Queue: 2 jobs
Job 1
Amino acid sequence: MPVPPPTVPDPYDISTAAAAAAAAPTGRFARRTAGMTASEIRALFAVASRPEVVSLAGGMPNLAALPLDTLAAEVGQLVASEGQTALQYGSAQGTPALREQICEVMRLEGIDADPNDVVVTVGSQMALDLITRIYCDPGDVVLAEGPSYVGALGSFAAYQARVVHVAMDAHGLVPQNLRDALESLARQGITPKFLYTIPNFHNPAGVTLAVERRTEILEICASYGVAVVEDNPYGLLGFSGTVYPALRSFDRDVVYLGSFSKTFASGLRVGWALVPPAVRDRLVLAAESATLCPPTFNQMIVSRYLQTQDWRSQVKTFTEAYRERRDAMLAALETHLPPGCSWNVPDGGFYVWLTVPEGVDTKAMLPRAVTARVAYASGTGFYADGFGSSQLRLSYCYPTPERIEEGVRRLAGVLGAELDVMRTFGVPARTPRLRSGPDAPSPDTA
Amino acid sequence: MPVPPPTVPDPYDISTAAAAAAAAPTGRFARRTAGMTASEIRALFAVASRPEVVSLAGGMPNLAALPLDTLAAEVGQLVASEGQTALQYGSAQGTPALREQICEVMRLEGIDADPNDVVVTVGSQMALDLITRIYCDPGDVVLAEGPSYVGALGSFAAYQARVVHVAMDAHGLVPQNLRDALESLARQGITPKFLYTIPNFHNPAGVTLAVERRTEILEICASYGVAVVEDNPYGLLGFSGTVYPALRSFDRDVVYLGSFSKTFASGLRVGWALVPPAVRDRLVLAAESATLCPPTFNQMIVSRYLQTQDWRSQVKTFTEAYRERRDAMLAALETHLPPGCSWNVPDGGFYVWLTVPEGVDTKAMLPRAVTARVAYASGTGFYADGFGSSQLRLSYCYPTPERIEEGVRRLAGVLGAELDVMRTFGVPARTPRLRSGPDAPSPDTA
């Protein structure tokens, strides 16, 4: 459909992005490969994982608290007693037993679900990838918070979808920004396929969508005929013990993505999608062509764990460890960071989103940080359009509090040096900042 | 590119198929969902899995011979001693240890490989899906044997690729048929993205590509600039003990797909792709957006199994069980089937490909077979174009020899009844037979 030129500069105008995507050359490979590039974070993992580097970049859950001996016994028993089933192919949708238990887990967030509408996937990343597969043709538009989860941006790029970011504030996605974006896209003749949102303890922004905004956002999307994809890997990891009602608890049409990677064990790669029946049938077919079926063994391990272990206490134990680390990071930021920095105070999850003084380019600074033996994820990795060069993500999930403090101290040194250079030679020319909807304020400055 | 009308009826003319694909309506979902339909085999699994039904339809490996107690101890030890690593995220490419061991396994087929070129996937189905993702734009053409693996056809459909079948004979893919197909496509201005081939103990045809044809087929593809994707899940399951040299052993540009589903345990979902470096980099990125990483735990279990167990003897044990079952099936076919049926004698793998007398439609007969408590996979499921209604696939991998004999007896009864009806009322109008390249002879009648 032709796009009328907007009468005023429109932050949501994506006609240029479309042209750029269409132009990409790929030789003997599919056009979609042009959009498949290594994320800054992943590209960085190799260096950042050297022991002398304090990595505040990754999102690896802290598994130290897992009762390995008990698990060893349970898993061994599973192989001995049910190995013929556990080591065999299973159904593409997942085992009925685990789908029942997943409904129990989701009930904690106010979700009333039928196990027949649950599809077990190889981590929720696979659900995200397949949901994009069944919704998006090349050029289709997806709405996502700005910033958004790097793995989601990767899947959207792999299916040649165009991403329009909608800014958040300290209370999550801003309903008026969502309306503005949908209005602008409507003027361009575009109905986005879905809104991708992480309502709780956002990755990377650390914020949580205010409960009173949840139904409003659902109503806005419904009124524009836009589906909602709710990604909720951190929902049970709130430091206050509060569990927020899922968007899905208000609206059965919401596509809900969940995972055991943060509440149990990421190395098992067990996640799921809860979807309306019409989506489920397509999702199961897509899952079949993607992997035939998720590993039966891993599903039975999670089932057994949920059945035989006090998994709620285990989640509480995890959460306490994360809160201790968050506190260590916040204290270190207060103590060491130079003036002009701002950050949010996450009340759950893994991440602090930091805004650095104007003029500092977090992407350009990253190699110098790694040289100083600290790694972070620069903000641009969390935007589809190059925005985010004044932001960075700090993860407190994995290192010990002592290492976190040391890492922040090193980061402060690097930032200080950048600022000294700027004072001496003036603010350097910025990396050209591309459009990202309205200039998204960092969550704490709204 | 415009397709000139062929001067003579051309079995490889795909212009009509292209138009059909483009026309499909999909509402709010992606166009690719129009091609995502439940395969006849999968649709059948529910009924066929009732205990009173002898299922000769599925391809489930026989795990009865696995030493579960030993495995239980090994897996338990793994969790107790390395649980912090095994239950954590890993790299998208797979663990270095397993990639090294995979190269050892492939050496049995004459493959000289660098572990850096191996990408571990969630079963080889995931490798197949991602290879299609990085090679195929909508409308691109893929060559595949006729018949071909139903899971491959599913992935090709999911990426809106068009499949052109190339007929086999008793010695596998026929080089001249491959030349003819490539010539015809060249006249249509089309260069296929790749040839997808299963050289050993073919699923579903049961045939093996003659060694003297292997380099010839590689040369033909090279001369037309067509990549080769070699899918080899059954290569080590030869009844004579012969291990055939892989296509990859002759040509480092071949994309090779392997799996532990048939040599160890399908429920772990551990497969791999061995690819040239330029493909590898794209494959790893595609794998990241598909699942982030394959399950670390499952990879470490396979590593430990290969390291601590006599896995070659285990494969020999599996193979002997399959040979016994093949013999039971062949004997039962000889004893019970009515005249006019023909089938191949597989010297490895899981499958017998059966051609029924002219006039019998295996797809139409399937419900009557299930009523008679025997299930098979009708031939049309193994073609992208509706061909195969005179064929069906019988799997001997899973049931006991006694059950196989009983299943074939029941199948013979159903076939006999169909033939009686035909004798009484004449040959019914066939399901319209669509084009599938030349009318592929069943492997044993060539």
Note: Chain A has 15 helices and 14 strands.
Job 2
Amino acid sequence: MARRGHRKPRRKDGGFQQLPPRVVRNPFDPVRVLNSEQVEKIHHASMTLLETMGMDFLDDDARETLRRAGAQVESGGNRVRMDRGMVLEAIAKAPSQFTLTPRNPARQVTIGGDNVVFCSVASAPNCSDLDGGRRVGNYRDFNNFLKLTQSINIIHVLGGYPVEPVDLPAETRHLDCYYSALTLMDKVWHPYALGTRRCADAVHMLSIATGRSPDQLRRQPGLFTVINTSSPMQIDAPMLQGLKELALAGQAIAVTPFTFSGAMSPVTLAGSLAQQNAEALATIAYAQIIAPGVPCIYGGFTSNVDMKSGSPAFGTPEYARATIAGGQLARRYRLPYRSSNANTANALGIQAGYESMMSLWAAVMSGANLVMHGAGWLESGLVASFEKMIIDTELLQMMAEFLAPIQVDENTLALDAILEAGPGGHFFGTAHTLERYQTAFYQPIISDWRNFESWQDSGAMTAAEKANAVYKVILDAYQPPALDPGIDEELKAFVERRRGEIQRMA
Amino acid sequence: MARRGHRKPRRKDGGFQQLPPRVVRNPFDPVRVLNSEQVEKIHHASMTLLETMGMDFLDDDARETLRRAGAQVESGGNRVRMDRGMVLEAIAKAPSQFTLTPRNPARQVTIGGDNVVFCSVASAPNCSDLDGGRRVGNYRDFNNFLKLTQSINIIHVLGGYPVEPVDLPAETRHLDCYYSALTLMDKVWHPYALGTRRCADAVHMLSIATGRSPDQLRRQPGLFTVINTSSPMQIDAPMLQGLKELALAGQAIAVTPFTFSGAMSPVTLAGSLAQQNAEALATIAYAQIIAPGVPCIYGGFTSNVDMKSGSPAFGTPEYARATIAGGQLARRYRLPYRSSNANTANALGIQAGYESMMSLWAAVMSGANLVMHGAGWLESGLVASFEKMIIDTELLQMMAEFLAPIQVDENTLALDAILEAGPGGHFFGTAHTLERYQTAFYQPIISDWRNFESWQDSGAMTAAEKANAVYKVILDAYQPPALDPGIDEELKAFVERRRGEIQRMA
């Protein structure tokens, strides 16, 4: 929550008035781009892939676990074949809805059903703002993104490292990042599934911060991680080890195949969706075999590549169709669904606006429960932008207001007001308007609704310039959420102990 | 159709490769923001308004017609009250789907059902491009917009005057505009319902251009007009007279109330929708009483005003909800539905992108059949932008591709290709990719998918700069559609005869 005006009076321009915290629920029946027969064909193709070709699991322990569970494992190789009975039986153990409870229980989120949870940008190597330009990620910017994520109500969850803090040593970086996530914020956060120890550290630190025992954390998880397959049909060892550690700790697993049509998956959408489905379900099945009932999320990220460069493009028509098809597949297996607010734009121009909206509408219309990269994503994820985070806050708020139900009753039908205004009259002065006008409509934080002349006369500020001012106002007013000093001590001690251990091992 | 490369070789940058002409059909069940009970409450409220308060029809002849049809007309006043039986009986005569056939029958459009027809920007007083800046409308710019509308396949229909050519005398302007619409284009167009004679001239010129008799034109209409009510609950004389002339000639009538919540309608959405419904249905009822069975379209344009300035804002959450509710109301009466691609932005920046997409997605998800202002609208309609027309062409093409069905069969499921690539492999070189990659994905005309460095190195061109180059390429390659010289002569002669008559009357 922004503590606007706490330290200094509110600025005239660039002030920040946001929507109060809210649970966003999607009232719409999800849109369908596939008929039932097409969904079944894709299902069948993906099961056939897992049965006949199989998938490479690049971790001995994972293969052994799968072999014991009934999979056919290639001797001396990485290939694992699972029949559909085994896969479907395993994934049926995943809950269709679950909650994640961070150290502040008021920030709990429910994933599944008609809930829509928005995450911050994650995993960008670079960040940018108008002042400092485009730069490699660092811990200062990392922390600033966390402060914004904490302060902006419509961002429910930290979706990962907003930007990689490469100025910190790679081996101990996670400790500093987790410490920031647990002290600068009190929302749900996301450690990376990069091997066992980093994930164990995350769970340990969550346990310190929440006072919940490992057993309690299993019953009341507070973290999620994204497991990306190395498409096509492969998953690497660090991911599998991280997955195992977090699954055994009862934390949530969002599995997202990297199926970029034309490069990492077939050039046809149906083929890419079949492959996405095979990779997602095989990985979720593995999680359920290790830890039956662990919360899992079906991730859809299928898009097309630019055939000129081979790079993925986002917010494209193919991306939007795949997003909606992915929602249908997730629902077929009664799994919560993850999508994104993605775009390929290099600048905060009109392309960033229309591509982001293409992605966001597709996500919402697909019935997505978790919208990754909800605020701050630019350049296909290569940049976390401070200004884009604020502009996306506008987009997410607009979407949340769009999803709010329309009240239809005698008061809102307002026949008396229409009578009072009368034919050819106006409503500015009616009692009905005066009672409601201050809160009747969504008030934008970025959109400029003044006419051209007023806008020109006041300096023709761009959305990016406005967002730049807003993000600084928020940082300026930021105050860390309350934390028991004893817990803070304990977290610090853990970080330093583990840092020492890791440094000695190196 | 763009005749790219007809006159000169294609430019390397700023070239224009567009989707071939296509009928856009919407495969989705329309989204619903109101439940059935809420729809009925709004229906009931709107009928109550027409029965008890009534609506002002500012034309003697219209009131007399309505009186004879059973309405209660205030003696010596403009007020008309109609009971719901009368209204519903009249509007039931309107077809739920119809076609408009311009002088080139290949450009025919069907309005209703699952068809989506995109129109050019209409009715802006100003226009702009990067070269000339923002300027008052003129005939040269008017004609250039018509040439673009003709050349761009995804713009199916000329939605009105893209910009008002104020350098032409107001009284005879329509003759020059119609002549342009019939010679620079062969698509469906839109004369304004501004009195009887202008509309009679439009029908007469269409008759010359198509060789269809008035009787044939009634059976095979080729024009549509938008009737705006003067909200609240009023309709002026020129609109009523133009409506009558066009309705008697069998041409299509799109009725769009100007219900801007907080100013011209109640500050609550339910009240604005009730008023929108009352105004739209009363006007459509009038059209059906004059000309039973004449094609009519239910228009939804309800949005909120900026309570600071009183000006309407577009692409807002309230606008999107009203758009979808409007579609539900139109379907309740089995009428085709009109929406828009609207925004309030002053510049071709990110706000124009996200507001336009908010409007366009809401339109498509609402099941809109006619999307007015599809390409070129800026500043709440105060500016027709040449660059925005090209950028919107991208948006409309993206939407059309998004709406195309996904093929799911053995070839597209591509199990062989996945086998060929194999776990950890890639698809660039598979036979399946090589056979399809050139046409597999939507190719953008504006979106820049290059990475940041390539984009920077090539000059960091903005979308607006790119669009500027594209629109000139299109104009450069433009050639007028074929027209029999005898018909052209006859059109010219008619224009000059009527110009003389009007000048002598003045």
Note: The longest helix of chain A spans residues 269-290.
